[in-house]
């Protein structure tokens, strides 16, 4: 093992890298333009939801293609009680997490009790997201298809309780969430849940024979994943200030969530982060360059995302992170 | 009291009787082999004990407590570890992590499970491959990993399903030695199904012969190979020649 090895040049380089990345992330809003801050916030947001989705698919092997359901539900719940009752986001957060966990538990119960898995499970998750998309079009309390709008606050005044403030505040909130999710996942992977989830992912029958109550552990993965995603939804509502069912529950949104972890490395800790950063850099980079060149190509970002996915699938089937980790001198731990 | 008691157990699939009123018992600290021609009901009986199926009739008791019809994970928790003939390694995980998953059944912490896993891999001769991905193992080593993982759960009864199938004679002899050692050192009781008679004769203290879902003979290996009914239905002339049965 490496733990009792004396610190060498490789360790110092890794430590230096971690320090540089941390300092860069923390100081980014102080030195970067507002455009850079908004792009970085988007990357962190995608890294966070990707991490949440990765718990269910990357760790436990249960494919959800309908994670926009939890983003949308979380967003609408917190926004709804804020718009109608003036209940702030911190209280709304708990309600959103509770409701999304319950919905996740319901879908999990349905799927796992009826022994639905694989493609059928992913179709079931798509169906629920679509149900929500169509359903919220008919819920006038949530604004229906015309959208639900949150009053925009004073952008120059930081109001932590109301979660209102300048873009940098949202950036730091997202940074904290992404870091927190990374920490939680790192901890879980090293403990019993991580071992049990990966065993279930690899072979469920063998896992059962080793004493694992697979139903219970799959339920834990689904509920944790949906609860984490709900928090992203609440953030989205107060960051974006407008919600439309078509936009938030759309199938494209679910795909956007899974692209990061798939490109970065399924089931790895840093894959969702690396994937999200790569997607945002390449996607927004391309649109920026095109805009500077005076070319207006709607959908260029999606084309770039598609190309990246294609190339990664062909040339780096394990994602960007495992080879990158080796290049940076990190132990390529098998997950 | 015997460690395992199988009492008048029956199981039918859509009217087809796979196991019909089978009874036998397994004494603690012993090795029992379940043999019989293809389709005799060995695998079904095995899966009934392991909790894959629920018996239609009869009872299965471990140390006097019924385990019949319990789900597989509760059967494991009760003290039964099993291997699969078609090996099911956690392919993407290292050999050590495979064993840790099993060890977590009896250990409260991951570090405790790791210690148990390391000891079990040592016992099975897999220590040198602990960090290798399970998908990179040979079939013989995958079979060993199956045993290691099951043994890591600290079972009192270890069920081994056709461990020798597809192995070369030298690999069979090595595995026979390893299994004898496992039984003695770990104090575990073993129930195995096996076609390779050479392995059965080398390992078993008791043989149970199954035919058409019924137990037609049981006893010590020396007596079984001279039993006319067994010779007639299964073993034939080359009983001890070392080749897979008819």
Key traits:
heterodimer, A: 335 residues, mainly alpha, two-stranded antiparallel sheet, 14 helices, 2 strands, B: 246 residues, alpha/beta, Rossmann fold, six-stranded mixed sheet, four-stranded antiparallel sheet, 9 helices, 10 strands, disordered C terminus
Strand order of the largest sheet of chain A: 1-2
End-to-end distance of chain A, in Å?
16 Å
Per DSSP E runs of 2 or more residues, the count of β-strands of chain A stands at: 2
Rg for CA atoms of chain B: 17 Å
Strand content of chain A: under 5%
SSE topology string of chain A: HHHHHEHHHHEHHHHH
Our estimate of the beta-strand percent of chain B is 15-25%
Could you give me the name of the CATH homologous superfamily of the largest domain in chain B? P-loop containing nucleotide triphosphate hydrolases
Low-confidence stretches of chain A: none
The major β-sheet of chain B equals: 6 strands, mixed
Beginning-to-end CA distance, first to last residue of chain B: 35 Å
Give a written overview of the molecule.
The complex is a heterodimer of chains A (335) and B (246). Chain A has 335 residues and is mostly helical. In chain A, 73% of the residues lie in helices and 1% in strands. Chain A has helices spanning 9-31, 34-59, 68-85, 89-113, 118-137, 167-190, 192-202, 204-209, 214-240, 245-248, 251-264, 271-292, 300-315, 321-328; strands at 148-149, 242-243. Chain A has a two-stranded antiparallel sheet. With 246 residues, chain B is α/β, with parallel strands linked by helices. Chain B folds into two domains: 1-79 and 155-246, Rossmann fold (3-Layer(aba) Sandwich); 92-153, no CATH class. Chain B is 37% helix and 24% strand. Chain B contains nine helices and ten strands. Chain B has helices at 42-50, 72-78, 95-103, 110-123, 139-152, 169-186, 197-203, 221-224, 228-235, and strands at residues 4-13, 16-26, 31-35, 57-62, 65-66, 80-82, 157-161, 189-193, 206-211, 214-219. Chain B has a six-stranded mixed β-sheet with strand order 6-7-8-3-9-10, sandwiched between helices. Chain B starts with a strand and ends in an 11-residue tail after the last helix. At the A-B interface, helix 7 and helix 8 of A face helix 2 and helix 3 of B.
């Amino acid at each position: 093992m490496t733990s009792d090895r004396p610190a060498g040049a490789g360790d110092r380089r890794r430590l230096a890298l971690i320090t540089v990345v941390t300092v860069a992330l923390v100081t980014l809003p102080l030195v970067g333009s507002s455009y850079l801050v908004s792009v970085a916030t988007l990357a962190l947001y995608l890294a966070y939801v990707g991490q949440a989705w990765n718990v269910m698919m990357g760790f436990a092997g249960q494919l959800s293609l309908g994670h926009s359901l939890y983003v949308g539900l979380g967003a609408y719940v917190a926004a709804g009680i804020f718009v109608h009752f003036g209940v702030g986001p911190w209280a709304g957060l708990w309600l959103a997490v509770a409701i999304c966990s319950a919905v996740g538990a319901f879908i999990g119960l349905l799927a796992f009790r009826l022994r639905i898995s694989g493609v059928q499970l992913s179709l079931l998750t798509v169906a629920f997201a679509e149900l929500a998309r169509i359903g919220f079009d008919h819920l006038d309390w949530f604004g229906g298809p015309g959208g639900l709008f949150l009053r925009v606050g004073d952008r120059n005044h930081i109001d932590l309780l109301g979660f209102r403030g300048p873009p940098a505040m949202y950036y730091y909130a997202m940074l904290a969430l992404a870091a927190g999710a990374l920490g939680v996942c790192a901890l879980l992977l090293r403990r019993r849940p991580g071992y049990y989830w990966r065993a279930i992912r690899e072979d469920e029958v063998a896992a059962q024979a080793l004493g694992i109550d697979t139903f219970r552990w799959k339920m834990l993965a689904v509920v944790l994943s949906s609860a984490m995603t709900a928090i992203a939804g609440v953030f989205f509502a107060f960051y974006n200030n407008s919600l439309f069912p078509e936009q938030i529950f759309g199938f494209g949104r679910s795909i956007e969530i899974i692209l990061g972890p798939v490109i970065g490395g399924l089931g790895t800790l840093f894959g969702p982060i690396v994937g999200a950063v790569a997607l945002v850099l390449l996607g927004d980079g391309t649109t920026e360059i095109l805009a500077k060149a005076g070319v207006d190509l709607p959908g260029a970002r999606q084309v770039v995302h598609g190309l990246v996915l294609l190339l990664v699938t062909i040339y780096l089937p394990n994602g960007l992170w495992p080879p990158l980790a080796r290049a940076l001198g990190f132990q390529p731990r098998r997950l | 009291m015997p460690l395992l008691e199988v009492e008048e157990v029956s199981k039918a699939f859509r009217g087809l009787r796979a196991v019909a009123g089978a009874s036998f018992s397994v004494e603690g600290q012993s090795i029992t082999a379940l043999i019989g021609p293809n389709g005799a009901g060995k695998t079904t009986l095995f899966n009934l004990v392991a909790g894959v199926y629920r018996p239609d009739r009869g009872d299965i008791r471990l140390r006097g407590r019924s385990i019949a019809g319990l789900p597989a994970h509760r059967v494991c928790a009760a003290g039964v570890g099993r291997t699969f003939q078609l090996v099911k390694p956690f392919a993407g995980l290292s050999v050590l992590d495979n064993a840790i998953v099993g060890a977590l059944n009896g250990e409260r912490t991951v570090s405790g499970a790791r210690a148990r896993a390391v000891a079990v891999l040592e016992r099975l001769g897999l220590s040198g491959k602990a960090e290798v991905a399970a998908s990179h193992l040979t079939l013989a080593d995958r079979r060993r990993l199956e045993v290691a993982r099951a043994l890591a759960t600290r079972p009192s009864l270890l069920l081994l399903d056709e461990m020798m199938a597809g192995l070369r004679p030298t690999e069979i002899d090595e595995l026979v030695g390893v299994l004898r050692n496992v039984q003695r050192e770990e104090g575990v009781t073993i129930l195995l199904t096996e076609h390779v008679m050479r392995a059965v004769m080398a390992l078993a203290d008791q043989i149970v012969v199954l035919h058409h879902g019924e137990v037609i003979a049981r006893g010590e290996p020396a007596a079984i190979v001279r039993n006319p009914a067994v010779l007639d239905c299964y073993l034939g002339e080359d009983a001890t020649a070392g080749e897979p049965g008819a």
